[in-house]
C-alpha cells in the first residue's frame, strides 16, 4: 500500500493480512469503534489488505463528531458573551452548528482559546478573576478523568468563575444502541484501546454475551489493528463470542481504578443526544449535584437563546449513517465536493478523528475500494 513502506512493521502487517485470509471461510462485517483506528486503517490501506469477505465499517468513535448541533449552538452563544473566555480543544472550533462554528465566533471578536488540558482552563480562571471561564468538556471516558481533576481543583481553589459545558459520552451504551438497531450490520467489534486503558474491558462482557458478538480490545498501530481483526475473525469462524484483549501492553481487565474513582466522584451517567444518531440512555456524563455550581448550562441559563437549542442539520449531510457504519464517507453525494474540510457540512469532515476527514486526506477519490 501507498503508506506502508514508511511503517517499520510493514512485513508483519503483510504476514497478518495473509494469516487473516487463511482463516477466513465466511464473509464478516467488523466495526472499529475508535476514530483513531479509522485513520490508521484508511491511511495504511489496512482494509484493502484483507480478504474480500472481510468488511471494516467505521463507528461513532469520535466524540467531536457526535457532539450534537444544539450543544455547538450553545457553545457559540456562550463564547459571544463579552465577559466569557471560552476554552476548547482545537478540534471543536470548526465543527458546524446551525449557523456558525466557534472559529467564526472567534473571528468576530469572541474570546475563544485553544487549550491542551482541562487544567489549562483552571489556570486561565485563576489569572482572570474578573472574567467567566467556560470549558467545553468533550470526549469519551479517556478524557473524563482530566476534566474531573480540573473541576476538583477548581473546587479546592474556591473558583467562582470556572464553568463546564459537559459533552462527555460513553462507549458501551453506543455499542448497544448499534447492536439493537434493526439496521445493524456489526458482527464483531474492535474496541478502543485508550478507553479501555481507563475503564478496563469487563464492562463489554455483558454486551458480548447478550448480542453474541466478539469484542477485541485493540490498539492503534497497523499491527495492533490487524491482530485485532484476526482475533475477531477467528472467533467468528469458531462460533465464539467473548471479549479478548489485543492491547495487553496498555490495558488490564479492571482498567485504571483510581481514574474511575475520580470520574465517579465528579460525574454521573445521563442520557445524551448523539449527533446524527439520536438520544441514547445513560450514554453521557453529567455533573454530580455536589458540583452543580460549575455547570455552565445552569449558570448561563438566561443567556442562552432559543436558537441555541433548536438544531437544524444539513439535509445533505450523511454523517449519522456514516457514524453508524451504514455507509462509507465516499458514498455521500456531497463528499469532496459540497463537503470539504474548508466547507464542512458535518463534524466528521473536520475532526482529526472523523471518518470523512480520513477519507478526504487519504482517499479523496470517489473510488475507495471495500
Task: Encode the helix/strand succession as letters.
Answer: HEHEHHEHEHEHEHEHHEHEHEEHHH
The whole-angstrom Rg is 21 Å
Oligomer: single chain
Query: Which fold name fills CATH's third level, the topology of the largest domain?
Result: Rossmann fold
What is the CATH homologous superfamily assignment of the largest domain?
HypD, alpha/beta domain 2
Number of strand elements? 11
Q: Count the helices. How many?
A: 15
Report the uncertain regions: 1-6, 306-312
Describe the structure.
It is a single chain. With 370 residues, the protein is an alpha/beta fold. It is built from 15 helices and 11 strands. A 5-stranded parallel β-sheet has the order 2-1-7-8-9. A 4-stranded parallel β-sheet has the order 4-3-5-6, with helices on both faces. β3, α5 (102-107) and β4 form a beta-alpha-beta unit. α2 (35-44) packs parallel to α15 and α7 crosses α12 (257-266). The model is unreliable at 1-6 and 306-312 (pLDDT under 50).
Main attributes of the structure:
18% strand, 2 domains, 370 residues, alpha/beta, 4-stranded parallel sheet, single chain, 15 helices, disordered N terminus, Rossmann fold
